[in-house]
Amino acid sequence: MAETITVTIPHETVNDETVRILSWKVASGSRVEKEQFICEVETSKAVMEIHAPDGGIVQYAAAVGDEVPVGSIICEIIPATQKEPEPTLVATQPEPKAPVTGLPPARLTPLARKVAAECGIDQAAFPPGTLVRSSDVLSKAGKLAPKVEAGLELPTPNQQSGTGREGQSENAPVAGVPVEWVDLARRKVLEGRILRIGRAACIQSSVTLICRAPKLRARVDKLGLSTAGPNALIIFEVARLLHKYPMFNALYDRGRMGRYREVNIGWAIDGGQGLVVPVIKHADQKSLREIASIMEQHVDAYVDNSLAPGDFLGGTFTVSDLSGDGVSLFQPLISQGQSAILGVGSDIASESGEQTLHLTLAFDHQLAEGRRAAQLLRDLSGRLKVHAEIERTPMDGPHSPESEPFCVLCQRDGSKLRKLGAILVKSEIPPGSVCSICLAGY
Amino acid sequence: MTIRLNSPISSVSSEAWAQAFLIRSFEQRLLRLFSEGKLFGTVHTCIGQEFTGIAVARHLLAGDLIVSNHRCHGHYLSRTGDVDGLMAEVMGRTNGICGGRGGSQHICASGVFSNGVQGGMLPVSAGMALSQKLTKANNITVAFIGDGTLGEGIVYETMNVASNWLLPLLIVVECNGVAQSTRQSQTLSGDVVKRAEAFGIAAYRGNTWAPAELTDLMKVAVRHVRENSCPAFVCVDTYRLMAHSKGDDDRPREELEHYWAIDPLTQFEAEHPDEALQLWNRSEELVSKAVEAASCAPFASSEREDRSGPTSPLWRRTSIAGKERVVTKIHEALRDHLATDNRSFLLGEDIEGSYGGAFKVTRDLSIQFPGRVRNTPISEAEIVGLANGLALSGMHPVCEIMFGDFLTLAADQIINHASKFRWMYNDQVTVPLVIRTPMGGKRGYGATHSQCLEKHFLGLPGTRVLALHHRYDPQALYGRLFATVDRPTLVIENKTLYGDYVTHHTVPGFWCEHTEEDFPTTRIRSHARPDITIACYGACLVDAEKVMDRLFEEHEVVAEIICPTQIYPLRIEPILESARVSGRLLVVEEGQLFCGFGAEVLAAVHESCTGTPLLTRRLGAAPHPLPSCRSAEMESLPSVDSIIKVVLEMLCHG
Question: Can you tell me the ipTM of this complex?
Fold first, then answer.
């Protein structure tokens, strides 16, 4: 067995998906000693030195300037004694070892192949020997920096230069006005595509309801959820309500309604580095605390630019909150494969200074009607008001034994529940009591 | 053939009397030290039985071996006269013959070996005799057992092999009529001597009340074994004058008084009071000196193995030339071993000829290497016991246990013998023993031929357990094992793996690499950051690879597999390294989960992975015996589908 050491960028050393080779300290084919400094790579945080794990002959597998996926091989070190392969070894070895050169082409999943085709990305664009998921395709699509093409031109619809834009144009400029064409980020193109498909598949309609829940913000602060904001409460409640209103957690296709068996809520974040919609999977099964914590992780990852491609997959419903931007009303757009999106705006009442929430549900009229959408919003508003009225903060500490039992999911106590006609049921998972409302999903 | 000597009384040499008094003085001193609270543990004295050892020892040559039992002091002192070494050993001192580790019943020095489990040393002694025969030495092995041990089946398994293979083994039964407290009349049927004769072994009977005749009888027996290179059996009627160990004696006083009266040393004292006094004084002086010397030495201590801290593994990509099946690779490794190491010896059931074992691993090897590949009776304890004896004699035996399920029959040899010798004998010996066995199900062999029982043999200090798989060349692995083996090593060969091809070509998009140890860990990985780490060993790797392929193709999930070839002692770092990256670790094993491999892995991982959020699961066999019915058996064992299901559950939960 011929033993060759492969030198890779270790997973645990960097947070990045890729690193850049800055410089080689030894020539390919030259001999190195164990622990010798052989290569410098740049990560998002620092420059990292790579040392030879053992002595031998170095053979590059990557060149200076290459973006190398983390975990992939940057060079091999062949034990010096095995520099010349023994003739017998070659004779008995029908397939000489393949690592450095002659790698098989990248392996794409069926979904990745589909997404690549949609995004117009050639499969050959991925490094040989790697694995490519649909998320990798998406991230590659989003990573390409927009480039400004030199000069101004007056393009005619079918005369655009550049790659991937052959075929029919989707729009035409106003006649007689010069246009400067700027390539959009792949991510933005993809976002548009998703929304376009969503728009094309749906007959969009919307209803808006104003929710006066003046103490909601205080409640959220008291719960220690301020990072996630009232959004966490809204997502928590709407996720449960979607069981009552399954037509909004579904998609329409050829005369049928496809109800999703999971409630995965995407929520829009835009902190100035671009709009992203990470997904909270199984939001209907998560506690308020869990949802808030996932949202915090998403925000942290957004700031670090470390949201994983997988974080964006699988959304069945979307929440978009622009209340923080002082927006009172807007028309959210339904994504591909979904049937509804909740937009959250807000207003400050001039006389009392109290905040109101403006809840807008955009929905696919093929699956529901305005009345049904209004019912959902009314239910949601009612629930938010209940939250706002809860004085105590059960999440900040365990209830004292003598205190009244409460629902560990929605935190409503017995008196609140009685008003709603609900009862408390003993629960093992989660431990404690759960109300009939949370238990039934609405 | 029973020989009763009725010849005129020949005289016992003064040297023999001196030995007898020394042994008695030694044993009586031990009892006194116990009563004074100066000794710890237990002791089994041979007071009254001194002449069995003396009568044999005087006929032994350099290179002859003695294998003894819990009541071994007399045998050792007859052979060596080493009062100092034995006293220090019993007193637990570092200058004892086993550094104080063995104590009264586990001694090893000057070609004398003893162990505390009844009958367990008998096949070991047969293995030593086999080694003497194979090396054509003119030596013999003497094994002492008590009549209580006649209840152990291994005694007859050994007599059977010793007679059939003509081993130069002298079995001496010290027949004192009682086993601890149980009278022979309650437990023994038939005639002791006839038992040996039934195996075609020359059998003799003598007693310790006629020491001169006994010495002559032993001379005949030893000569028979040495000259004819075949076993002999001597039943020596005797009487243990003191308790089984210290004070546990409920025999009637009149009986004891009778035997004290006819005791040869008592009679010698009566007839030759002056000489007896002289011998007593000399013996007491030697024993006192020994106690004094031992008291000055430090006590033995528990030393934890010096473990270097965890180091991150160095991974190498390895290519495997050609394309051979696992069974061929093992066969070739065994052939290489036989061809290059003249101390190698293969033993097992049905392994000879072109039959070559139930799974054909040793096909034709007995023809290519005549006399060094031996069929044994169906007796797993005997196979491993013989191999223990061979290994202690410096041979390199390789046993095949036809089905891993039958390891239970050899458990005493593995657990109480092979794994103990080296440490218990203070590192004076090594046990370079290899046990190969096929484990696992999916063949419809049912509850007793399909198990993965290795977990019962994991965690024996001083041993090693390896598990073969098809992504690391078994020939290379065995080659390295045979070249370096220095401890009992159990090698798990899964039945379903035998027909698989050994190649480094794994799932497309992934590759195999290995750590740099002799018995490396295999990692199957890709360029992508893994979503899940799957740890497994042996044939589970086959399913794990299929899981890896389908997870990627159908679920866009990237798995990384960590598959150690050495499952005990286990190097956790490779698993830890991967789990830290993926955040999820699933351990798949074919055996039962409770107290199993996965439990150990997860314990070790959680102990060293503090601070890193890590989701862990185990998957193993259903908690009932394996059914024969194909579909039911498949349902009972981890499958590609069930592994994928667990992985997806783990991914959903974070």
Answer: 0.76
Any idea what the Cα angle at residue B150 is, between residues B144 and B153, rounded to 5°? 110
pLDDT at A162 over 60: no
SS (H, E, C) B516-551: CCCCCEEEEECCCCCCEEEECCCCHHHHHHHHHHHH
Number of CB atoms found within 10 A of residue B94's CB: 17
Domains, chain A, ordered by start: 5-100 (2.40.50.100), 103-143 (4.10.320), 190-389 (3.30.559.10), 397-442 (no CATH)
Query: Choosing among A8, A95, A132, which should be mutated to test the B contact, i.e. which has the most B CBs within 10 A?
Result: A95
Q: Per CB distance under 8 Å, which residues of A are interface residues toward B?
A: 1-6, 8, 11-12, 17, 53-54, 69-72, 76, 89, 92-97, 99, 104, 106-107, 109-112, 127, 129-131, 133-136, 281-282, 310
Q: What is the CATH number of the domain that holds B147?
A: 3.40.50.970
Residue B552 touches partner A, C-beta closer than 8 Å: yes
Three-class SS of A50-81: EECCCCEEEEECCCCCCEEECCCEEEEEECHH
What is the CA A312 to chain-centroid distance, rounded?
Answer: 3
List Cα–Cα distances, B570 to B438, B537, B574, in angstroms: 20, 11, 10
Residue-wise pLDDT tens digits, B14-43: 999 999 999 999 999 999 999 888 888 888
**B579 with B642, same domain?**
yes
Domain membership of residue B51 as a residue range: 28-200+211-296
In angstroms and rounded to an integer, the radius of gyration of the C-alpha atoms of chain B is: 28
B306 belongs to a structural domain: no
**Of B253, B269, B296, which one is at a domain's C-terminal end?**
B296
Q: Are A359 and A193 in contact (CB under 8 A)?
A: no
